[in-house]
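Most newcomers find our protein records easier to grasp once they have seen one. Read left to right, the backbone structure tokens trace the chain's path through space. Once this layout is familiar, the rest of the handout is easier to follow. The record below serves as our worked example for the rest of this section:


***
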Amino acid sequence: MNIQWYPGHMTKAVRMMEENLKLIDLVIELLDARIPYSSKNPDIDRLAANKMRLVVLNKSDLASEEGNKAWMEYFDKKNIPAVLYNSKSKEGIAALQNKIREVCKEKIERDKRRGIINRSVKAMIVGIPNVGKSTFINNLARKNAANTGNKPGVTKGKQWIKISPQLDLLDTPGILWPKFEDQKIGMHIGYIGSINDDILAKEELASHLYKEIHSLSPKYLSGRYSEEFETLEDPAKALEQIAIIRKCLLKNEVPDISKAADLLLDDFRSGRLGRITLERPFDTDAVE
């Protein structure tokens, strides 16, 4: 597959981020806990090189416990502040607030020495599309302060949101980067819904996803569909069987492979296949 998606509004979003970074104390980058490497935008490293940083592994409830543990250990060894966050249960808010205070401790103490008391920390929320930034902000704000949606591109412009007297957040649109050098990264981002589905060859994407999940553990698939998926390695036959099992049939009982591809992708994105981490720190050492 050759996946590339960089619409014009992302170029504008990058410029907006550059213009507002001078106002920011802290950059909070949301990653998808299932694919922390692929969901980390290298352009953000460039833009925020001189700012305090905090990584949030969002959607940790959709990633395996073992994967979450491995990534937290990885970031700890790299001295990169990181927290796990579950946007559904809101588990991780207390840890996040403590981590923000910890990361910004020197800045707060420096303000006090200068006689600046109770100045709020200004943080920019960044990440790729559909990584859950708006829901994350709404959970922190305890209100619907940011627009949300289950597709990329919901946030179109910047938005300042008052979280508390101590914290202001700047929500920004999700941005990708102009070219994926490694197409596996493009596929992983496609799996989680960060690329417009309309431009994807979803049957091919679903076939790649099937192979990756089956190689991790076929039990994810057999537990959702049927026992035969334990030994069913051929993704084309697998999609056909999913269509039959879910009664997605065209005329003359022909399996609807396109619908089956949609079902597999949706089952992964929603967590109905189970808690799956597709990337581990030992797969790459490029997350800095």
Observations:
- Residues 34 and 277 are 4 Å apart (CA to CA).
